[in-house]
Structure formats: structure tokens, C-alpha cells
Specification:
By secondary structure, the protein is of the alpha/beta class. Helix content is 45%, strand content 19%. Bound molecules: adenosine-5-diphosphoribose. This is Malate dehydrogenase.
Length: 320
């Protein structure tokens, strides 16, 4: 059986880490596409030269031509520019919207059967635009946000309780950003919900609120430390978990920015919800009952995603 093919659109910080992880996990052969000639070729060769040391078999190539992603099984998109000082949110939106148009058309022409994972920010709007430009089925295009947000939540909880990250499970809903909705009553340590752990005296409601806020600000915390870029190790690991679930038909329950067509009362938008990812793409959207305050926070989050999508439609009416 031929190896699977993984195309990475964008060979920057996240793209390079994705390429390395895909090799270490032997998910398939990797093609890195970038507009900066030399970078994808250089990173591809560098990682390939590590393969004898780590003992993995995978072919690597770098390219500036979309035709080289032909037949990819998975496409992971990190192409775009980050927000720079003096740039408004709309400036960023305008630039990355243009990038999504190029990428969407490239995927439609050369890899229309791929499972596509978008990472470019602002995530929930960019994955929506990428789907529109590519014309791929909605269940084959998803955004990576929830796995990362819940991983951060899990990590902070494991630290708080001094337990293994393996025994912490966390649940995060909504858009990627300040309005994300970490759900404490569905987050557990060895199956024990967080509110019960408060009752057991393991932590306090105030500490949990602080951890929830730190989770919401998780991206900004890394930017504040790095100063010249944003997080890349954890975002790459998160997207690889999604790609692996698709490629191996693991049917993992993973929170993703998925297309909603009425679920959670939302239509024609991408928002972070729990999904089942298998070899058909997004095979199921898990619709849980929200209590009044969770619903209020979720609706606020949806409202902010809608604002971004509306801004995209205004910038480029062709995307609507
Ligand atoms: N087509 C292909 N690649 C592009 C394009 C384009 N039109 N425009 C820019 N790129 C490439 C850049 O050359 C760069 O190599 O995208 C890459 C982006 O890499 P980084 O700037 O290192 O960004 P990274 O940290 O990888 O984050 C990528 O993910 O989390 C989000 O906010 C983050 O939107 C950003 C994206």
C-alpha cells in the first residue's frame, strides 16, 4: 500500500513542526508548500536528514507550486501572516482572506479529496472562507482550535492538581479566542468533574476561574513570552492528532471548528464543538445540552465569530 500524502500549506514555524511530527509518527510522505522559495525545500531536507537518526521512513519535498500537492490525503493550512504592530484586525483579515482564496483554489484544483485542517488565524472565519473558496464538502474542512485550547486547559489543571496530564480530560466550546467557553462541569480528573473536585477540597472556585481565564489567554501568554511570534509546538501537535484520527479512522472525539448547519442553533458558520473524526472526515457533531450561563457564553462566542465572517463578506463579496 502506498504511503499517505500530507501537504502542508505554509512552511513557517507551525508548518515545520507539523512536518517533523508527521515524520516521527510515520503518518506518510510530506510535501511542504510555501511562497518563500527555499524555505520549504530547506526544512524538508533538514527533517529528512533527521530520519535515519530517529528511524522513520517518509519522503520530504518542498515546493512553491500547487501542482505538487496533487492527490494529498490531508492538507494542513498555516499559510498567512500574523498580526503586526499597527495592523488592525480588519487589515489582517483582508490579507489572510486573500491567502485563503489562493489556498482554497489550489486545493480544489489539485487535492479535492483531501481532509483539510485550517490553522490560520482568525481561525473560525478563515476556515469558513477556505471552505467557501475550495468548494470542498463541509465535513472535509475543519479548523484546529479546540484540541489546542483543551490541551492548554488540561495542562493547567494537571499542574493545579499535581496529577498526570493523561488523567485530565477537558472540554472547550466556542470560537478560538477570548470568547472561548471552557466547560468545567464536563472537564474531569479520572472521571471526576471539576465542580466535584471543588467540593472535595482539591481546589477552589476562584482558582478554577483563574485557570479558565489563563486558558482563554493561552495564545497571548505565549506571544508575550516569545515576542516575535506565536505558539507553534502545541498548535502543530493538535493538528497532527486530528490528521491521525482521519488517516487511521480512529474516530476520536475531538473539539474542532466544524461547520454547523443548525446544531447548537447555529447555521452556516464554523464554531468550536466536539466532533468525531474518522476516515469520512467530520462524522458526527456532538451536541450537548448547555445550561443558561454556558449558553450565554457560547452565544457571545458565536456572535464574535459572526462579526468576523460578516467582515470577510464585506471585504470580498465573492466569498459569500
Ligand atoms: N501561500 C503560502 N504560504 C504563505 C502565503 C501564501 N499566500 N503567505 C504567507 N505564507 C507563508 C509564509 O511564507 C510563512 O512561511 O506562511 C508561513 C507562515 O508561517 P509563520 O509566519 O511562521 O506563522 P506560524 O507561526 O507558522 O503560524 C501560522 O497559524 O496559529 C496561526 O496565527 C497563526 O495565522 C498564523 C498561522
Amino acid at each position: 500500500m502506498a504511503r499517505k500524502k500530507i501537504a502542508l500549506i505554509g512552511g513557517g514555524q507551525i508548518g515545520g513542526t507539523l512536518a517533523h511530527l508527521a515524520g516521527l509518527k510515520e503518518l506518510g510522505d510530506v510535501v511542504i508548500f510555501d511562497i518563500a522559495d527555499g524555505i520549504p525545500q530547506g526544512k524538508g531536507l533538514d527533517i529528512a536528514e533527521s530520519s535515519p537518526v530517529d528511524g522513520f521512513d517518509a519522503a520530504y519535498s518542498g515546493t512553491t507550486k500547487y501542482k505538487d500537492i496533487k492527490g494529498a490525503d490531508v492538507v494542513i493550512v498555516t499559510a498567512g501572516v500574523p498580526r503586526k504592530p499597527g495592523m488592525s484586525r480588519d487589515d489582517l483579515l483582508e490579507i489572510n482572506l486573500k491567502v485563503m482564496q489562493q489556498v482554497g483554489e489550489g486545493i480544489a484544483a489539485h487535492a479535492p479529496n483531501a481532509f483539510v485542517i485550517c490553522i490560520t488565524n482568525p481561525l473560525d472565519a478563515m476556515v469558513w472562507a477556505l471552505r467557501q473558496f475550495s468548494g470542498l464538502p463541509h465535513h472535509k474542512v475543519v479548523g484546529m482550535a479546540g484540541v489546542l485550547d483543551s490541551a492548554r486547559f488540561q495542562y493547567f489543571l494537571a499542574q493545579e492538581f499535581n496529577v498526570s496530564v493523561k488523567d485530565v480530560s477537558a472540554f472547550v466550546l466556542g470560537g478560538h479566542g477570548d470568547t472561548m467557553v471552557p466547560l468545567t462541569r464536563y472537564s474531569t480528573v479520572a472521571g471526576i468533574p471539576l465542580p466535584d473536585l471543588v467540593k472535595m477540597g482539591w481546589t477552589t472556585k476562584e482558582r478554577l476561574d483563574e485557570i479558565v481565564q489563563r486558558t482563554r489567554d493561552g495564545g497571548a501568554e505565549i506571544v508575550g513570552l516569545l515576542k516575535t511570534g506565536s505558539a507553534f509546538y502545541a498548535p502543530a501537535a493538535s493538528a497532527i492528532a486530528m490528521a491521525e484520527s482521519y488517516l487511521k479512522d480512529q474516530k476520536r472525539v475531538l473539539p474542532c471548528a466544524a461547520y454547523l448547519d443548525g446544531q447548537y442553533g447555529v447555521k452556516d458558520m464554523y464554531v468550536g464543538v466536539p466532533t468525531v473524526i474518522g476516515d469520512k472526515g467530520v462524522e458526527r457533531i456532538v451536541e450537548i445540552n448547555l445550561n443558561a450561563s454556558e449558553k450565554k457564553n457560547f452565544d457571545k462566542s458565536v456572535g464574535s465569530v459572526k462579526g468576523l465572517v460578516d467582515a470577510c463578506k464585506k471585504i470580498n463579496p465573492a466569498v459569500a
